[in-house]
Amino acid sequence: MTLQSLTIRRPDDWHVHLRDGEMLKTVAPYTARQFARAIVMPNLVPPITTVEAASSYRDRIIAATGPDFTPLMTCYLTNDVDPDGLARGFAEGMWAAAKLYPAGATTNSASGVTDIRNIYPALERMQEIGMTFCIHGEVTDPDIDVFDREAVFIDRILSPLVDDFPALKMVLEHITTRQAAQFVADAPANVAATITPQHLHLNRNALFKGGLRPHAYCLPVVKREEHRLAVRQAAVSGSPKFFLGTDTAPHSREAKESACGCAGIFNASYALESYVQVFDDEGALDRFEAFASEHGPRFYGLPLNEGTVTLVRAEHQVPETVEGLVPFHAGEMLRWRFVG
Ligand code: DOR
Ligand code: ZN
After folding, report:
1. Is ligand 1 within 6 A of the CB of residue 248?
2. Domain count, the chain
3. N or C: which end of the chain has fewer CB within 10 A?
4. How far is it, in rounded angstroms, from Cα 208 to Cα 104?
């Protein structure tokens, strides 16, 4: 019999961009509607590098979402990060994790790390105290083809890191390739990955379907079909190394539909609907709850949420715009609906 309704433990989003100012007020309620907690990316301008900045940002987030939502703050790593300061912020409960942006890799990464060796002392400290290291895994070398930057990062940077830090909890964020799925699956238990809905649904043809499609553009960029299929298999595999992280990354319509359009897909408004359809299509609805609500908190060492959310099988069309932004799946039919 076809399942008509699915009730799961309340999920979390292990990778979001909530922005600031008016955009924060607009988008954060969509994340808070579906998720209890979220790992909040620190790539604001200026980036979130101090406990003070994180504390006031957290207050602004909660003002936008209400108190039922828990933002988990991350520290933007720079070349001159102070390991003691980082450890203090973790001990105080401000930092849930620290994030690596290789300088120049993506939106607001100019203050990022220019050489991984520069943060080795911070990584040593994080390993000691059990603080999670979130990784934007792309090399920035202009000689490397943009579609190969994740796979080359794994060879050049991540693979040596995993050897050098055997106990550091690492999350390879928003994986997009067969190589990433395989590397994480084969790595020790301290290495995990988040998976976005767009990398489960889109291959690189989506960038050019009938014309140039800025709303399918994010970083790491979507890859060939073989990679999408490998990432899908990882997501539905049931392995505790893979968990939900939307990478919802809103930009104004003008910033997306531009001669130099920004990278990022706003998927917060229909995130669970988008993911659950993949698990349904793969015959893996029984594994959705673990991916959405269990693997993430277990990896981070946080309690599972109380309470549940329900999705029902009901076709509906995603609107062309949400709050003036173009959402993921705009104009398409989705087969599940979030009912709260
Ligand atoms: O597509 C993306 N957008 N990828 C990132 O890594 C950053 C994000 C953003 O902040 O816009
Ligand atoms: Zn991101």
Report:
1. no
2. 1
3. N
4. 25
